[in-house]
Amino acid sequence: MTTIADPKAPRPPKPRPSRLTTRGNTELYGWVFMRASGVILIVLIFGHLFVNLVAGEGVSAIDFGFVAGKWASPFWQVWDLLMLWLAMIHGTNGVRTIINDYAERDGVRLALKASLYLAFVVVVVLGTLVIFTFDPCPAGSPADLLPSFCTA
């Protein structure tokens, strides 16, 4: 006969890990980072939305030329770069926490985290390259393929 423990019975206390087995304040720093980066991301995202949708002519004005003109300024390059990096670090840290909470087997946890970090690196590297190497008027391109604001 199988007996089920009384759900209202107090649980025995878990043994506390020794000082040598704790990981330090990594999780605390991650928690604080999530709060701080969330506040900064709100400012960056709403600034981005305001400039792109409210201050200009609305969503109909967003096209290749709008992005090219915006990224001609180092200010907007840094703004978008900060938004990309913070959003990716913030999201990766959140998904890492979810993986730690729900992946029970070590092998699955390792595979999920490895794919998460790989995706993070790919998106951050490619996004950074796009922001800083974007050239709307590449030299040697056929004039009929260039936007109207480029001088041939």
From TrEMBL:
Native source species: Cellulomonas terrae
Disordered as annotated region, ranges: 1-21
Location of this chain's protein in the cell: Cell inner membrane
Alphabetic keyword roster: Cell inner membrane, Cell membrane, Electron transport, Heme, Iron, Membrane, Metal-binding, Transmembrane, Transmembrane helix, Transport, Tricarboxylic acid cycle
Domain of life the protein comes from: Bacteria
GO MF entries: electron transfer activity; heme binding; metal ion binding
Entries under Pfam families matching the protein: Sdh_cyt
CC annotations in GO: plasma membrane
Protein name: Succinate dehydrogenase hydrophobic membrane anchor subunit
Primary location class: membrane
Function of the protein: Membrane-anchoring subunit of succinate dehydrogenase (SDH).
Bilayer-spanning residue ranges: 28-51, 71-89, 110-134
GO biological process: one example: tricarboxylic acid cycle
Entry keyword Electron transport: yes
Pathway listed: Carbohydrate metabolism; tricarboxylic acid cycle
Topology within the bilayer: Multi-pass membrane protein
Co-factor requirement: heme
